[in-house]
Every structure is written in C-alpha cells, then in structure tokens.
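Anyone opening a protein record will find just a pair of labelled lines. With that in mind, the following record should read easily:
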Amino acid sequence: MKKYISIITLVFITGMAGCKKTYLDQEVNPDFPSVTTPQYTLAGAEESSAAILTLDYPEYGEWGGIWCFSGSYTPDAQFQEFAVSITVPPQPNDAWGDLYSNLTNYNNLQVSSEAVPADANFEAIAMIMKAFDFEQLVDNYNNVPYTQAFQPATKLFPAYDTGQSIYNDLVKQLDAAISLISKSGASATNPGTSDIIYGGNMTNWQIFANTLKLRLAIRQSNLSTNTAQADLASTASIGYIGVATEADCQPGYSNALGKENPFYAIYGFDQNGNPGAGYETQRSNIVASNLMKSLNDPRDSAYYQTVNGAINALQLGNPQNASNAVSSPLGPGIIKSPEQPSIIFSAYESLFLQAEAVARGWIPGSAAALYNAGITASFNAVNAQGPVAAYLAQPAVAYPAGGTLNQQVKAIITQKYISLNSYFNLENYNEFRRTGYPVLPQNPASQDPAAVSQTLPLRIPYPLSELNTNPANLALQGNIDIFTSKIFWAQ
C-alpha cells in the first residue's frame, strides 16, 4: 500500500533534530539557576553549529538538484510548487531561530570571556563562530539584525543591518580574533577537549578564521567593492584549511540514542538498524547524478546507493517519481556510521576557494594544483571507487589552465558542486546563485505542473516569527519576492 506522509511531518522531525536535545545541551531550570563554564558553553555551541549546518538546509538540496523527495511520500504542495511566502515558509527547519539561538550562546561566551583575560581563547573562538553563523544568516535572508542583536533589555525590536555591512564587519571580527589568539599566547587557558572541533589547537583556529575570511571575499566576487578581498593580504601568512586542518566536530558520537552524529541519525539508521526519516524521504536527484555520469565520476555511487546495479535518480516535482523500492537513497560515502564526525569546514571546499582566489589573482599559488587537490580530497572523503588520476586526466575535467577566468571558475564551481553534495546544501546553493555554475544537464527547478515558476528561488522568506514579533523593522526590508529579491552578493 502506498505510504502517504506530508513533508510537514519530516519538517517536524528534522526541525526538532536541528536543535534537538543532546548530552551536550545546557538545560536550565528557572527555579534553580546555575552558571555555566566557558568549557561547557563552548562544547554545546559547537555541537549545535554542526547540527544546524547539516540538518537545517534540505530545501536547498532539493532546489539545487542534489536531493529529491521520494515517490513513496506525498510532499508539501507549496514547497514543491515554490508557492511559498512568509506565512508559508519553505524551511523544513527554522534556520533563523536555530542560528540566533546558537549565536546567543556564542555571544554570551564572548562577553563572559572578555572579563577574564585567561579566557581569551574562548573569546576568540566565540568571535570566529559568530562570524560563521552570521554569514549563514546573511546568505539565507540578506539583511538581518546584527548591531542591535543580543540586547533584549534595551533593543527589544532590533533594527536590521544590510548584508553588505554585516559581511564587512565580519572580516574585522575575524581579524580581531586572529590577533587576540596571537597576543594571548601561552598566558591564555587552552580550551582542550571542550573544543570539540580543534581540541584547543589555536593555530588551527586562526587558519579556520582566515579561510572563512577567504570565503567572505570569494562570495563577493561579483561586487566592485570587496573589502574582504582587499584585506586578504593582512593575514596571508596564516594560510588556509587543508586536509590536515579540516574543521570536524567530534563530541564523542556513538551508536546510542541522542549521541549519534546528527546527520546520520536523520539520514541514516537508528540503533536497531531502522532507517531514519530523512533516509526514507530523500532520494538521489537526476540533476546531480546525470552531471556525474556525464563526467564518468565514480563519486555518484558514493553519494547515492545503487539499486539493481544502477543509480535510479528522481526529479523534483515529477509525478512519475519512483517508489523507495526502486529509487536510490543516500549512499555509503556520506552515510558511514553513527560515530562519523560532523564536518564544519571541509578541506575540499577550502582548496576550491583557494583555487578560485589564485585564478582571480588574489593570492599566490597554482590554481591547477589546488583544483586537483580539492578533487582528490573529495574522492578520499567519500571513498570513491575509482582512480582519481584517471578522472583528472579527462579533458572534460582537467583544469583549463590556459582558458579564460570564466572557464576556470566554471570548472572550479562544477567540481565544488559535486564535492559539497548532501553535507553542504546551503553552500552549494550559495555558489550556484553567485556564479550560475555548474551548467546542469537538466533544469533543477520543480517539474510539478502546478509549479509557479520554472526558475529557482533566489532566497527564502523571513520567518513568520519576525512578522509576529518585529513587524516594524521587518516592513522596512520591503516586499520580499523569492524569485527576484537577491542576496546582496548574487549575480
């Protein structure tokens, strides 16, 4: 019997997972107030950052041609038809609420650490991760509360800052964090194991901050004024994330209820081997799968499971979508184990960012070598069943060293799109919106006959919570149309 389930059910399940309670969460009983330590605040906030990044953006995976809603389930019509608005949001999770909640924890950590010189490293990490979260807010919504955020006693209805001004200040905050780490040196308390991303390695945190600054610069490549790009030289000696310095969150995930990797818990299996809600409802998308097939890319069978020896991919909104019995679920290259770490900033993304920066003449190096290293890192990350050397040798894949900048960016973004599959749906969609690449073999937009547009949305609307609680400042943002209202950096 065909199973019917509204996507709203999955929305609830994954939405709860995006901010679900785990053994690192801070539970506060108002009858027995307590004071948390910097160590505990940091670990809990970092774990939440990982959950938000991997769970809050399935809509971008579907819209971007990476995932497709299963034919065994009935999706929400408004979502699939792009008929969304502030009162009918497409967000399976409240990225706005999750990010601001997480930012509040980082902000509290920063403020409390400022008063204790020995806690300078905690302060610096909080500053870096605030930049990491605020970038996501801007990339989702454009203008958001920033300078008046976290002041409920005096700014109950915070004004919005422009996305451009926020980006500009994030660069300053990252520079300040890098400097603070250097100045504090050995006199500051090392976070140690309470830092579940880098284990207290503050040099790696400087590298992380510098790589995030590079991403802020690359994101603004379409703008004539790019203060982030102009600032790259000031911290060039720090370097960027590589394979040995990838930012992975590992609080001690295990095959126990509430302790498994959050992505695996939703898109993999439970302790008894039963598939999670996301595993059942998300299948391979024909758009990404066919792109990999056209390039003879062995990562196809790492991202998506084969069914009867082949990838049987679906297309968003196609009424002929096949049932779960014959369609391909997410694959073994990303659904590994409940103990797998959550990747916060991957080596392959960093290498592609560096390749584009070199191609644009912003930093020194070999764009071709960085491009090849990015693909190699991606192959290794998903255990691709094929030789990377043979893949790189194909004319359709080889870096166009003698080509135009546009041809080089096209090659870089195509490989970034393939590499970011599933774990980084927001970042993938960001790059597609920024560059228009990759050129996809099929239109990734919904094929639902009732779809209100055959073009992809450029953004999601503000959440209903803002309309209910901060309407005056929200109204100043104007009418938001998901097909015409762009994030400031979009082409």
About this structure: The beta strands are 67-69, 144-145, 160-161, 247-249, 282-284, 342-345. The radius of gyration is 22 Å. The chain has a mean pLDDT of 90.
